[in-house]
Sequence to fold (286 residues):
Amino acid sequence: MRIRFWGVRGAVAATEARFLGVGGNTPCVEVRDRDDELLVLDAGIGLYWLGKRLLTGPHGRGSGRTTILLSHSHWDHIQGFPFFVPAFIPGNEVRVLGGGVERLEDTLEGQMSPTYSPLVSLSNLGASVTIGELPERVEVGAMVVTHADTHNDQHPVVAYRIEEGERSCCYVCEVDHPDGLRPEVVELARGADLLIHEAFFTEDESGERPSLAGSRGPSPTGHSTFGQATDLALAAGAKRLLYFYHHPNHDDARIEAAVERERARVKALGAELELDTAREGAELDV
Fold:
C-alpha cells in the first residue's frame, strides 16, 4: 500500500514558516492499494488539498470512489469535508464511516447548517455521498480495515488497522494512555509494518500540559507524548513509527529535537525500531 500525508497537525492549523517543514494542516492521510483504490483517514483541512489533487484523475471526471474513515468527529477531523471538491462533482461516490458517534450523518449535516456554511445541507453536494455506521470489517479494494474503539480522556476515538496482503499499517490519530498503555491499541498495532501514532506533547510537557488558551486557560486532558508513542510501538512490536497529530505550538525544531531524543532512547534500550515524524507531502510504501 502507498501512503501520503496531507495533514499532520492537531487541534488547529499552524501556518507560520517555522512549522511548515513538518506541516500545518489538520489530519488527513491518503492510502492507496496496489490497484490505486483510495482510502482516506480523517477529514481535516488536508482533505481540501487532497481533493484538489484528485481532480487530475477519475474524480475530476465524475468517476472516482473515496472511502473516508474518521477517528472521531471533533472539528479538526471533519472541517475539511465541506471543502472536498470531488464531493461536488456528480458521478463521484463518497463513503464516510467512523467518527466515534452514533449518528455521524447528523454531525456532518450539522456543520453544513446555514449558521456555518453556505452549502446549507449535505443534499446539496453533487456526488453520491453515503454516511454510515462503522462495521467490524471494511474492504476498500485489496485493503481490509479493522478497528479498535478507544478513548482520549472521555472522548470516544476509533483507531484503525489497514492490511493489504501481508503488509499492515496502524493509524492511531488520538489516544491517551493514563494508566499504562491502552491494551486495545497495543493489540491493534501488534506486528504492524507501520504505526502512525499521536505525539501531541513532548516529555517535558507531560507533567504540566500547556493549554491552547495560554497560561490562564484550562490544562488540556488526554493526548499522548512522543515517549508514549514509542513505548506503544515497542510493546506492539511495530517495525516503523511515525509521530503524528502535532501540537500547533510545536515548530519544526522542537519536533525534530523530540524525535532525536526518542531515537537515542530506543538505541539505549537496544531495541530495533525505525522512527521519524510524519511530514505533509511525504509519500511511502508499506
Summary: The longest helix spans residues 252-269. The mean pLDDT is 94. The first strand starts at residue 2 and ends at 7.
